[in-house]
C-alpha cells in the first residue's frame, strides 16, 4: 500500500492527507470546493488534487461531512456521492476503502457496502471496507491527527489487518482493532453522545443555580476539588462543532427505528438546543435592568466561531443567537478576528455598544477592558464579574 486517496479535504481529510504525504505515501485528494483546490495547489504542490487516477489508489479514505437535516435526521448524501464515485473506478485488486465520516452502527454494512458492490466486485475478495472514525479536535495543541489514538473495525479480517497496518504506519498513537465494523461506528457516536449529555447537565444546572442566585462557575470549581469520580463540563451559550450537536441525533434516529426511544439523550439535546434562546433572555433581562430595550439598541457580538481560536462556524450557537437578537430589532455589530467574513465592525465599535455578547472565548477577547461596558453577557463564563463595569450576566452566574 503506497498510494492514498482522501475524499474530502476539510478539517478531517486535509490533515490526514498531509500526514500520509509526510510518511512517504503518494497522496491524492478529491475536493469539490474550487477555491480550496486552488489554494491547495499553491500551498501543497505535492498533494495531487482532483487528478483522474485518484480513485485507483491502494487506500481510499472517505472523509466527507455527515450532517443532519432540518428535522435532525441523518443526511448521508455526501457519503453516498463519495461511494458512487468510488464504485465507478474500483479496480477489483484488493483496494482498502476506509470510512472516517461519523455514521451510525450498520451504515457501513447496510448502506455503504451495497453501493460499492454495485461495481460487480465483492468485499472480502476484490476490495475491503473498514471504518476508522475521525477524532480531530480543532485547535487542540496536544492531540492532533498524528497522535490521537484510533479504533478500527472492518467487515473482513484481512481488511482489518490492512487498515490497522495503514494507520500504524502514519500515526504514533495507539491503533485498536475492534471485533466488528459496528463497534467502531458505535464508539464515535457513544463518545459524542456522552459529551452532549454531560454538557446538557451542566447547562441545566446552570439555569437552576442562576434562578437560586448562585454562581455556577464558583460551584463547579468547588466541585472539582473532589479528586475522583467526576467528569465535569462548564455551561455555555450552546454547543457547536460538527460532532456533539449532530452525532447524538444519529443514535436517536437509529434507536427509534429499532423500537426504543432514548428519551434521556433526547432530553439532553433539547436542553443544549435551548441555550441560545436562554442566552438571549439574559440579554433582555440585563437591558431591562438598565432601563433600555433590546429593540433599537446597539448590540455588539464578540466571536462567531463555535470554539476559541478557530475559524469554524459549523453548528455554532452564535449564529442562532445573532438571528434571535436581530429579530428583536437590535442593531448588530459583530467582530471575530478568525472569521472576517462574519465581521461588520471593529473590536472598538463592538465595545462601544449598549450591550456586548461574548459568544466565543478567543484569547484576544480575554485581554479586553470591560470596565466601561454597560451590559455584558458572558456566553462562555470566561470573565471575572468584578472586571465588568456594568451589568454582568453569565450562563448560571
Structure in a nutshell:
The protein is an alpha/beta fold. It contains twelve helices and 13 strands. The chain has two domains: 177 residues, NAD(P)-binding Rossmann-like Domain (Rossmann fold), CATH 3.40.50.720; 178 residues, Rossmann fold, CATH 3.40.50.
Any overview of this molecule?
The structure is a single chain. With 397 residues, this protein is α/β, with parallel strands linked by helices. It has two domains: 3-179, Rossmann fold (3-Layer(aba) Sandwich); 217-394, Rossmann fold (3-Layer(aba) Sandwich). 39% of the residues lie in helices and 14% in strands. The chain contains twelve helices and 13 strands. Strands 3-2-1-4-5-6-7-8 form an eight-stranded mixed beta sheet, sandwiched between helices. The chain has a five-stranded parallel beta sheet with strand order 10-9-11-12-13. Helix 3 links the parallel strand 4 (59-62) and strand 5 (95-99). Helix 6 runs parallel beside helix 9 (263-289) and helix 9 crosses helix 10 (317-327). The longest helix has 31 residues, at 181-211. The chain starts with a strand and ends with a strand. The relative contact order is 0.09. The mean pLDDT is 95.
Amino acid at each position: 500500500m503506497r498510494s492514498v486517496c482522501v475524499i474530502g479535504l476539510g478539517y478531517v481529510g486535509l490533515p490526514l492527507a498531509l500526514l500520509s504525504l509526510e510518511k512517504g505515501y503518494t497522496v491524492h485528494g478529491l475536493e469539490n470546493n474550487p477555491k480550496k483546490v486552488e489554494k491547495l495547489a499553491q500551498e501543497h504542490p505535492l498533494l495531487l488534487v482532483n487528478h483522474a487516477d485518484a480513485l485507483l489508489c491502494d487506500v481510499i479514505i472517505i472523509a466527507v461531512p455527515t450532517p443532519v437535516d432540518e428535522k435532525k435526521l441523518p443526511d448521508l448524501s455526501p457519503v453516498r456521492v463519495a461511494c458512487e464515485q468510488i464504485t465507478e473506478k474500483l479496480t477489483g485488486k484488493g483496494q482498502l476503502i476506509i470510512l472516517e465520516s461519523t455514521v451510525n452502527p450498520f451504515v457501513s454494512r447496510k448502506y455503504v457496502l451495497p453501493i460499492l458492490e454495485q461495481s460487480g466486485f465483492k468485499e472480502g475478495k476484490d476490495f475491503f471496507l473498514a471504518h476508522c472514525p475521525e477524532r480531530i479536535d480543532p485547535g487542540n495543541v496536544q492531540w492532533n491527527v498524528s497522535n490521537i489514538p484510533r479504533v478500527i473495525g472492518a467487515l473482513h479480517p484481512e481488511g482489518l489487518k490492512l487498515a490497522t497496518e495503514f494507520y500504524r504506519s502514519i500515526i504514533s498513537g495507539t491503533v485498536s482493532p475492534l471485533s466488528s465494523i459496528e463497534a467502531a461506528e458505535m464508539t464515535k457516536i457513544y463518545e459524542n453522545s456522552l459529551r452532549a449529555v454531560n454538557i446538557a447537565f451542566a447547562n441545566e444546572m446552570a439555569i437552576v443555580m442562576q434562578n437560586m442566585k448562585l454562581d455556577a462557575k464558583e460551584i463547579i470549581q468547588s466541585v472539582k476539588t473532589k479528586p475522583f469520580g467526576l467528569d465535569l463540563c462548564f455551561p455555555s451559550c450552546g454547543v457547536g462543532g460538527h460532532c456533539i450537536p449532530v452525532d447524538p441525533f444519529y443514535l436517536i434516529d437509529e434507536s427509534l427505528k429499532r423500537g426504543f426511544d432514548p428519551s434521556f439523550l433526547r432530553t439532553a439535546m433539547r436542553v443544549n438546543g435551548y441555550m441560545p434562546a436562554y442566552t438571549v433572555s439574559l440579554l433582555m433581562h440585563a437591558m431591562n435592568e438598565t432601563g433600555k430595550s433590546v429593540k433599537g439598541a446597539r448590540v455588539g457580538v464578540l466571536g462567531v466561531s463555535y470554539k476559541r481560536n478557530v475559524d469554524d462556524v459549523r453548528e455554532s450557537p452564535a449564529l442562532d443567537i445573532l438571528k434571535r437578537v436581530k429579530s428583536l430589532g437590535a442593531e448588530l455589530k459583530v467582530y471575530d478576528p478568525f472569521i472576517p467574513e462574519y465581521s461588520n465592525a471593529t473590536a472598538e465599535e463592538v465595545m462601544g455598544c449598549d450591550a456586548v455578547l461574548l459568544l466565543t472565548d478567543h484569547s484576544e477577547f480575554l485581554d479586553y477592558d470591560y470596565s466601561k461596558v454597560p451590559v455584558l453577557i458572558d456566553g462562555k463564563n470566561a470573565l471575572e464579574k468584578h472586571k465588568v463595569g456594568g451589568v454582568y450576566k453569565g450562563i448560571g452566574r
